[in-house]
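Help wanted!
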Amino acid sequence: MRNSKVYGGFKTFNGVVFIVFGALIIVQLALRIGLRFEAVSGYVLGAALIALGLYRIVWFVRSRR
Amino acid sequence: MQQDHQQELRRSVTPWGSYSWGYADVGADIFVALGLVFGVAGGASNVAFLFAGLVYVCVGLAYTELAAAYPVAGGGQYFVMRGLGDFWGFIAGWAVLLDFTIDITLFAWGSVGYLSHLPVLGILDASAHPLLHFWVVLGFVVGLAVLNVIGVRESTAFNGFVSAIDVISETAILFLGFLFTFRPELLVHSMQTGWPDTFQLMNGISLAIISFVGLESISHAAEETSRPASIIPRTSIALILTILIFALAYSNLALGMHPWYPTPHDAAGHAQQFWQWLGATQNQDKAVAVMASNIPYFGIVAAFYVPVFGATLLLISSNSGVFGSSRIAYSMSQFQLLPSLFKNVHRKFKTPVISIAVFCAVAVVELIFAALQGDFGYEFLGDLYAFGAAASYTLVFIALIALRLTDPLTPRKFLIPFNLKIRFRGEDVYFPLVAVVGFIGIFAILIFVLLTHHIGRIAGPSWLLLGVVVYLIYRARKRLPAFGSVPRDWNREQVSILKNAGELELMDDLIGKLKERDPNFTVRVS
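Answered by r_m:
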């Protein structure tokens, strides 16, 4: 099941969603708050979402090799 | 007559099982920590979670490396014992035991708190009906103890199911919350107007570490995970990121949230911001449910299911405290750190009945002390929880550094990034810079706990002192070294651990290195 196309597609989609969420948070903060101390925690949140998304995709691609 | 229960655990935990085992423990923490942190750190709560979260990433990486390299149950206690010797192993294990007993009470308390958010169960509210609340929490603790004695505990499959639902549920709360209620300008305003003084910020950071406690379960799961050296890094890094994301997302959302319903006035009749309402004493033990019910439309459904779900998740976590404390005590008595009676199992149910009874009794004592604190009972438990975690994690970082220096031959499939290659006692070793950063961070949090938690700074060290007395008496009666270690052949034990884990390539690699170092080294591998 873990090697099926459906599972792979789900995992990749999931990863992409995390990356999009993370990017949206960073963009929204940059546009509305800018580079201020109050936004640092939000930027880290966005970066963590992107990292999780990339991590899921990379692991999936590695496991398919 | 009682007999020793000594059987090897079956390695049947899959990647998802390993992830969910950890998640069932750590994932529940935000349900407890959110209200507590907002209660003291106010407008800087997201910064408190960020500081604690970055330290937690270092702690998580340390546990990942150690659990993958030494895949045995025992967690921090085992790593510290191997790295620093029996005495410090005992201290780490005893601190973890404090956390597990607090875990039982704190999460049972939180479970009742979440139930009290349901309109029909409002009578269970700790502020309004403290005596009834006390008896219900006591009933939960005793009930869990009985269930554990008769051998009923949650299965990996059940944990997996609950974790999956929880990830979906929390993601939905955050997604819809950010979509419908989040105002970045309000976040800035809340931070500027609600910024606490330094003392409160330190207190908030030390409480925020609560939302990241439970990494012990990664290492407990290690003994039951197939191919742990490969699986554990993969699952625990995803777990670390997930928990960090939830903690940061909840705290930022709460500060920038424009709630659906008007926020009630405070006790003095003054208007208050939503995050102040969230950190108020009556909401501290149900903060996530309060947040979820304030999301437009979704809040109508969430007001009913989040309290029930939160209560279930917290009860599972409370149960893991009962189970975990008995397992740690069992592991410690195996290594002659605690009297062997903690290894005794019930004749009929084959469960460690003495360990369960002793540590649940400790949990009940803690509950009584918490109840005597009135409105600050929940915070009292949080204080102690933070102390136990900070103390044991501090030792784990030192153990990691010590093991890198003294045990360079053990194969580490996962190595924390950023290392300095140095020569130590004639061997090449990789000195972990992240462990130094993590040690400084967690040690700072330990200092914050001692500085800002009036009861934690007395009760926590008192617990350790009590443990040291028990330990010294036990070791003296057994004629074992008090501050030294019982001689053990760690190299042969490591070969055996890798063999049992099914990591045969790593085992061969280790044997090869050991033979290279000492041509006379022999080991029987059957």
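OP: Thanks! One thing I noticed: Residues 5-32 of chain A form the longest helix (28 residues).
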